[in-house]
């Protein structure tokens, strides 16, 4: 049993917005995405606007209050990832999403790297105190339109990486390390156009991983992929991951 486990491939899964659309969370950059339909909406998640304009913060809190992300539930693609992680195959999830649905589906926290942070927590921009988004939204519901930090009075923001903020270098470093040593790298529901996350696919391929891309639209990394799947994520990803769980690297031909 242990020798079989030792031979199983390390599978890295890079997930983007497309994996969560079936959970009712919009793809912000897609053809019908919010950033295309309402360019002003970007200001609500742009650090310099958020920090300098109280009205932007008030609108941001209203957006969070009305967001589908906190009410969304994992879909069959998330549960397929969790099933693979539970099967004994070594799995690490690198996600561009901030919705926390991989963890809700059952993937252990330690196996998930959130490149862009999480919408399920808030952080103080002054003292760094971190609390739950649910607590902050309770204050908004109670009438605070721009709740401040209860520890120091500083400005609170979602624990996500806003436009104009740098990614957490420790998280990015771990993601890069995984990309360099994995045997299979699956990019799912991501346009692979946002750096530095997109470069992880190329990094994995360059280090010998079998690159599989599951996405409705072409990506810049398609030429490097051993396999490109255009089928709906909700059917394609479970089939792919269940095959990996059943047969290891051979299930994907590598």
TrEMBL record:
Protein keywords: NAD, Transferase
Source taxon at top rank: Bacteria
EC primary class: transferase
Pfam family, any one: SIR2
MF terms (GO), sorted A to Z: histone deacetylase activity, NAD-dependent; NAD+ binding
Domain Deacetylase sirtuin-type residue range list: 1-247
EC number assigned by the record: 2.3.1.286
Protein name as catalogued: protein acetyllysine N-acetyltransferase
